[in-house]
Amino acid sequence: MRLLLFLTVCQYAINSVHTYSISNPNVVLLMADDLGIGDLGCYGNRTLRTPYIDRLAKEGVTLTQHIAASPLCTPSRAAFLTGRYPIRSGMAAFSRVGVFLFSASSGGLPSEEITFSKLLKQRGYATALIGKWHLGMNCESNNDFCHHPLSHGFDYFYGLTVTNLRDCKPGQGSVFLKGIQKYLVIPVQILGVTLVSLAVMHYVGLLKVPFQALGYCLLLTAISLAVLIFFFYHFRHLNCFLMRDHQIIQQPLSYENLTQRLTTEAVQFIGRNTDVPFLLVLSYLHVHTALYASDMFRGKSKHGLYGDAVEEMDWSVGQILNVLEKYNLRNKTLIYFSSDQGAHIEEISSSGEVHGGYNGIYKGGKSTNWEGGIRVPGLLRWPGMIPAGTYMDEPTSNMDIFPTIVKLAGAQLPNDRIIDGHDLMPLLQGKVTRSKHEFLFHYCNAYLNAVRWHPGNIANDCSQANSTQFTEDHQKQILGIKDTLEDNSLYKKETENL
Predict the structure, then answer these.
(1) Quick one: signal sequence residues (predicted)?
(2) Does 412 fall in a domain?
(3) What is the 3-state secondary structure (H, E, C) of 189-207?
(4) Which residues, listed in sequence order, are joined to residue 136 by a DSSP beta bridge?
(5) Could you give the C-alpha distances from 222 to 188, 226, 229, in angstroms and in order?
(6) Domain match, 295 and 225 both
(7) Closest among 453, 448, 458 to 491, alpha carbons compared
(8) Pairing mode, if any, of strands 465-469 and 447-453?
(9) What is the pLDDT of residues 254-312, one digit of tens each?
(10) Could you tell me if residue 11 is inside a domain?
C-alpha cells in the first residue's frame, strides 16, 4: 500500500513537471536581421562556422519552407509580433520606402494591435526585448512612447528603437545622402536652369522682376541645400542611440562590443527570471549594415566582415544555450531562431567589400518576393516536446509563432480580429502532416505581389506553386516551388487547363 502511494505521488510530480513544460514553457525568440538561409551550416553552408545555430537544428526541427511575411524589416517584424499580415495593422506602406528610418517618425505599431508579448505578460510571464525594435517610438510628443516596446507588452527593453544604418557608423557611407543625391539631382538642375533663364530674361529686358529677388531665390536655395546636407552628415547624433527602457543611455551609438553587450543583457535577464516563466526576444543587429564585429571575431572568418558578424551572432546564440543549461532550463524552454527576411545580396560597402549574405539556391533577396527574399531559416528546439534532428518540408510562416506561444502559455487567441498564423505544435509533434496554410500572400509594401498556393490535394502535379504578379507590367507568372531558380513560368500551361 505504501509502495502504491509512493508511486502515485511520484507520478503526480512527473505529470506536474510535464504540465508546466507544455503549458508554461519559457520562450526564447532569436531574430537575425537580413540573414540569408544559405549562411548557416544547417542549411548547407560549408565555409561559415555556425556550430551553435547548427546545434539548434540537430536538437530540434528545421523548417525548410519557412516564410517571412514580408521581405522588409518593419512589416515583417509587425507580422511576427501580431501573427497578422502587416497590411492588417497598417504596417504596409504605399510609398516606396516601406520601413521607418527616423526615431522622430510619428508612425509605429498601433496600440490597439495585440502582440504575443502582451498576452504572455497577462499570463504572468516576465518579458524582454533586447536589440532592434524598428516599429516606432512616439506618437504626438517626443516622450509619449506610444509605439515603444514597453507599450506593447515588454517589461524590459535594451536596444535600438529604429534600426542599424550605415549612417550610424563613421566611414560606412550614408543611406540618406545617397538618396538625396539620387532624388535631388534633377530638381536642382531644373531649379538652376530656371534661375539662369530668369537672369538672362531679366538682363535682356523680358522680365521686370528686381534682380535682387533672383539673388534671394538663389541664396535661399543654397542655404536649404546646405542645411539638408549638414543635417544628414550629423544624422547619427540625432537618430542613432541606445535605450534602456525609456531612457537614452548612449548617443551616438557605439558599435564597440555591441553584440556582446546585447548578449550580456539577455543572459542577465534569464538569470533574473529563473523562478518564473519568461519571454525573451533577442533581436540581433547582425547582419544588417552597417556591419561590425568585436575584436575577438574581426578578421576570423573566410567571408570578410559579413562572415565575422555571422560567426559572432552564432557565439551569442551559444551563450544563450549555455545559460539555459546553467540554470537547468533547457527542457523548459522553447527556442526559435529565424531572420526577418532574406539576405540583402546587393549590399556593397563604401570600400567595395560585399556586405550582403547568401540565399543559397534561391533567387532574389531582401525587398523582393522571390524565394530568396522571403524564405528564411526556421529552427525550433524544445527537448522532450519537439523531436530532435527532424526536417519539416511544409509551408510555415513567422506569423505562426504568435498562436504557437500564446497557446503554450495558456492564453486565449483574440477573437475580435483575424489571426493569419497557425499553431505549429501539431505539425512539429507529428499530430498532423499538412500545414494549414493553403495560401500565403506576399506583398510589396501595400501591393499584393505574389501568392503561395499549397492545396490539400497532394496528388496534383502543381500541388505547390507560387503565383507572382509583377507590378511593372502586370505580367503574371505561376512558378513551381521546386523550381528554385523561378525561371520556368507555368502560367500559360495552367491557364490552358482551366
Answers:
(1) 1-19
(2) yes
(3) HHHHHHHHHHHHHHHHCCC
(4) 108
(5) 10, 6, 11
(6) no
(7) 453
(8) antiparallel
(9) 999 999 999 999 999 999 999 999 999 999 999 999 999 999 999 999 999 999 999 99
(10) no
* Catalytically active residues, by annotation: 73, 134
Count of all residues that appear for the chain in the document: 498
Query: To 5 degrees, how large is the angle CA 75–CA 407–CA 423?
Result: 60
Place of cell 525550433: 380
Radius of gyration of the chain (CA): 26
Same domain, 386 and 309: yes
Identity of the amino acid at 193: V
Evaluate whether 360 touches 393 at the Cβ level (below 8 Å).
no
Pairing of strands 61-63, 378-381: antiparallel
Q: In terms of Cα–Cα distance, which of 477, 481, 450 is closest to 361?
A: 481
Residue carrying the nine cell digits 495552367: 494
For 52-76, write each residue's pLDDT tens digit. Answer: 999 999 999 999 999 999 999 999 9
pTM of the model: 0.86
Range of the domain at 486: 455-496
